[in-house]
Write a structure and sequence with these properties.
Elements (H helix, E strand, L loop, with lengths): L1 H26 L9 E3 L6 E3 L4 E3 L2 E3 L3 H5 L1
Antiparallel strand pairs: 1-2, 3-4
The chain binds zinc ion.
């Protein structure tokens, strides 16, 4: 009987660990934390490198005003 109780406790602990790990992966932000930020040459705002564009050898943001210049 003691063995069965021990097994139940072990399964319960495992379940709690798995539940906690699942909760941790869900709460992670979707944005890349180590993404490099660059400064727009026209308006000076900081934007993620993936959202920046290069125009006339200058880094600009996605705003239409900066892209037209
Ligand atoms: Zn800009």
């Amino acid at each position: 009987m003691a063995r069965i109780l021990l097994l139940i406790v072990l399964v319960w602990i495992l379940f709690q660990i798995v539940k906690r790990m699942a909760a941790n992966t869900d709460s992670k932000p979707s944005a890349k934390p180590d993404e490099k930020f660059v400064q727009c040459a026209n308006c000076g705002c900081h934007i993620p490198e993936s959202e920046s564009q290069i125009k006339n050898n200058k880094i600009v943001c996605n705003s239409p005003e900066c892209l037209q210049k």
